[in-house]
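Quick illustration, no need to memorize.
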Amino acid sequence: TNSFGTSNTDFPPGDPGMYQLDVTLRRGQNLAARDRGGTSDPYVKFKLGGKEVFRSKTVHKNLNPVWEEKASILIDNLREPLYVKVFDYDFGLQDDFIGSAFLDLTSLELNRQTDVTLSLKDPHYPDHDLGSIFLSVLLAPGDQREATMLMRKSWKRSSKNNNDLLPSMPYRTGNLWHRIYCPSKCVLMTVLLVSSDKHHGTFQTQSLRLSDLHRKSQLWRGIVSVTLIEGRELKAMDANGLSDPYVKFRLGHQKYKSKIVPKTLNPQWREQFDFHLYEERGGIIDITVWDKDVGKKDDFIGRCQVDLSTLSKEQTHKLEMPLEEGEGYLVLLVTLTASAAVTISDLSINSLEDQKEREEILKRYSPMMMFHNISDVGFLQVKVIRAEALMAADVTGKDSFSKSDPFCVVELNNDRLLTHTVYKNLNPEWNKIFTFNIKDIHSVLEVTVYDEDRDRSADFLGKVAIPLLSIQNGEQKAYVLKNKQLTGPTKGVIYLEIDVIFNAVKASIRTLMPKEQKYIEEEDRLSKQLLLRNFIRMKHCIMALVTAVCYISSCFDWDSPPRSLAAFLLFLFVVWNFELYMIPLALLLLLAWNYFLIVSGKDNRQHDTVVEDMLEDEEEEDDRDDKDSEKKGFMNRLYAIQEVCVTVQNILDEIASFGERIKNTFNWTVPFLSWLAIVALSVFTVILYFIPLRYIVLVWGINKFTKKIRNPYAIDNNELLDFLSRVPSDVQVMQYHELKQDPTHSPSKRKKNNPA
């Protein structure tokens, strides 16, 4: 580092005062090349006390990068140096180390902006010149009393909400990115940030309280796959000497819950859960085992923990975990893999516009790579450009001037990223690019707009849900924002440009595998409208079967002689010449007939207004329930009867959804799935035509009997049910339906010039 004049060495050791260090990361010079092309993709990390407090953006293919990013760090021990590390980003691989340096905080003058040059070194090669990093630093004393009060308030609020606390939080003012960090207290604080506003000449107040949402927005460094195999010799918690065990997993804010296995002390689960790994040194998965009791609190059976820092990566570990505070064992398979390609960048850094990167992505998902890494189905790029005419959530000033502080959360299954906040603006511009790895082409992209509020939880402004298979690549489109239930419009539109690249063979194979579960979010609650809606949906399915039976009966009764005669001749022909292959052939003809109707403009799919009305009623009831719950508190919760009713409600939902999914498969609601059904039915028809049934049954039986021998830890699944789980029900079709814009507000669309 550069040498300075008056330093802080005169301060007594262990001075309890609080300091604020403002560090501006300027640029790098002559950095070491780590890629084959003689360049690097550098980014910088700041560490304090062994914890990461700042991470810069990645500058691609540049040995003299310019960052101009700012970090504000709260420090209570000047004796601890700031550790600066520079890495070369490698797509999908472990990043390469370029060099590191230390900034001695005791050598800085108080309240004086100082330019610092750090020479990068590698401890293993101390003589190598690895380049330099240029910083501007300003150390100023902090107000200990004010900081303590802010920490107390934040701690109370965070403890009350039972949210996970973050070590750091990004925010943005102007063109600079900032982070606030307190290494010893490790709590989030509501911090007053002062920055000049070029247009208004005002100050901005930034809230860093949104711990839960911001935690999910961090870029994870790996994936932890946990397969729950079985339990052994669990403790009996019921009067019959057995238990109804289930397992809860928790890693940070991520939670999963297994299915319940009734009446056993040696349950077999065979379920898989995926966690995001945020910490470089791993983390600890908390596992608790419970006994399900109807009508009362569940019984605790035992707990255990998995320390991920002790497990090697890219390897599957079989663990037999003894339960503490209880009896028995859990058998798990745990695998740590490298991070998927999940990134956030500005519009200027576009992977698909870079011809070389685009070719690499297209090559990775080309037909030649169909059997390589089956779980990596495709690549998704989402451009969150701007929003218009958002709802005003904040009322400020004497004249009741209404504004919002909007930010955007982008979700794909359990992958959650978010934009920065644009303050006091109903027409925000984010101009951010998000990229995701697609594990299931039938996933739904959810984009939600919130209003950041420093005094309470974020306010919901609007949401859109977009199935990946319905996306048109390269089209900038304005989506009308919907309400929380996705049943109707709310105020505002959001402009998105989305690109999806995927391998159709991998997508087809993944369709026949179990669907990824979502994090545990909220428990089901009893709803009159939801119960009635599910009953009506099931009634529609049953009435369809009744109608079919009545139609056949009318043929028997000769209500229409020509129709009955045709049915009689068809019956004689089919029974006399029946072969098993005719079953998939008949379903194949039904699919082809419906496709012909759609192509010819005679679409027989009807919009279910009953379901739409029920969804709107349910939304109104949810609003009433929220208001009632605030008044009644926790004293009037429903107990056993509510649980029974919720179970019945969910069973009705499952039955109705099953029937609707079968109908929607043949109605070409999702063309990809209908084409996949055509391929499968064609294959089954040919197989059943040429191969005798006894051989098919023999192969099926041998496969079933030897499955556990060939793979003892195989997860049981039903390919047909897994396929149907990807077909949307009528309610989901309604939720994913794109709303038409108000004619008075017709945003423009434009087609992007596609370099490919």
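The radius of gyration is 30 Å.
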